[in-house]
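Second opinion, please. Pick holes in both lines of this record:
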Amino acid sequence: MSNNLADTVCSEIEAAHEELVALCGELVAAASVNPPGRTAETAQVVRDFFASKDIDNEVIKADDEAPNVIAQIAGASGRHHVVFNAHMDTMEAGDESAWTVPILRLTRRDGRLYGLGMGNMKGALAAMSPPAA
């Protein structure tokens, strides 16, 4: 990656920082513990975010409680594809009294983000979400 491209990517990430942190907060607040693996609420957060960016998306589901969200953004060249794939469920929190933050509320502490799923996939899901179409 050239320095110019790297600088551009870093600038765009920095510009979208707070928006993506807010998305992390919405994702953490959307309960999706597996079992039972109900991810409908998390899928709606993802769909709403994409819709706010005018990114067409659709739901594919074999189970109303565990839908998949599919979105596509056309690239400039039309030749190469990048596919992002993420799960939307989380593990159980375990002993909630051992947590130092609320499990379903995003907490910022010492430059880090905490909440159920942030270190598993919800943080990565936000990072994969485009801040602009």
The CA atoms of residues 3 and 85 lie 28 Å apart. The longest strand covers residues 57-60. The chain has a mean pLDDT of 91. Strands lie at 57-60, 68-71, 107-109, 112-114.
